[in-house]
Specification:
Blueprint (H helix, E strand, L loop, with lengths): L2 H22 L2 H19 L2 H8 L6 H20 L1 H12 L2 H6 L7 H27 L9 H28 L3 H7 L2 H4 L18 H6 L2 H13 L6 H25 L4
């Protein structure tokens, strides 16, 4: 069997293992999924009138605010769901599962590839569920073409891959599941200080650069432009650059930690 065939076979085996674990223990995924859904409902039905009036210059229109907030909630869904990958990897490390897998005649990279692919599939499923909730409460994207929908899906998948590699690195670097969960907390907090809920140009001058140039804001503005027809500008290139940078950083960080000799 060639090296490529071996890698594909073993990665598929690890993927099935991780999906089986997710099916048997769905509470972690459900808890992480509830965060963006609750944020969506909270900001639409509790703060939606005030927030929409502020954005629209005094006119309270929840339907416009729903359209504005959904792209940010979708990105927040990615950030919250990939925390499960950090916890899962850290649990395997703490319980000695990865140590045992290292001694077996399998492709070494298949272990973390299985975690990454399994996490991305869970993220995509979570995005579908959040999207269904968003449509149920009134979100519509009637002006987006098929090509723009395809580009939006590709951006979400690319961003999910990038954050998953970062989360896997966090899991490998953490001594236990609790530490992994805490280390991955910025993946939930960063969307809160982005343009997910209010435009970045309404923020204080000293804080605005933090909101504008962190990874989530360019991705949110690009997704918003694809789905709603707003101006994308330089955000598209920034979003792609962030995805490439985070993917590369997460990949090399994760593989270096995984290949490190155990102490």
């Amino acid at each position: 069997m060639s090296a490529l065939s071996l890698a594909v076979r073993d990665s598929g085996t690890m993927l099935r293992r991780n999906l089986l674990h997710a099916r048997r223990y769905p509470s972690l995924t459900l808890n992480l999924l509830l965060t963006p859904i609750m944020m969506l409902l909270l900001f639409v039905y509790i703060f939606g009138g005030v927030m929409s009036a502020g954005i629209a210059g005094g006119t309270a229109d929840r339907s416009e605010y729903i359209a504005y907030i959904v792209p940010g909630i979708l990105m927040m869904t990615i950030g919250s769901t990939v925390i499960g990958a950090a916890v899962s990897v850290s649990t395997d490390m703490a319980e000695g599962v990865i140590a045992r897998l290292r001694t077996m005649a399998i492709h070494r990279g298949s272990v973390i590839i299985g975690h990454v692919v399994g996490s991305v599939l869970q993220v995509l499923a979570s995005l579908v569920l959040v999207g269904i909730v968003a449509v149920a409460i009134g979100f519509r994207s009637t002006d987006a073409s098929a090509l723009e929908w395809l580009a939006a899906f590709a951006l979400l998948a690319f961003f999910a891959v990038a954050l998953t590699w970062i989360a896997v690195g966090m899991g490998l670097a953490s001594p236990n599941a609790e530490a992994a969960s805490n280390m991955a907390l910025p993946l939930i907090l960063l969307p809160l200080i982005s343009s997910a809920f209010i435009p970045a140009d309404t923020m204080p001058g000293w804080f605005r650069p933090i909101a504008e140039y962190q990874p989530f804001t360019p991705a949110i503005e690009t997704l918003r432009g694809l789905l709603l027809g707003t101006e994308i500008g330089h955000n598209g290139w920034l979003a792609v650059a962030w995805c490439l940078a985070l993917s590369a950083l997460g990949y090399f960080w994760s593989t270096s930690l995984f290949n490190r000799d155990p102490k």
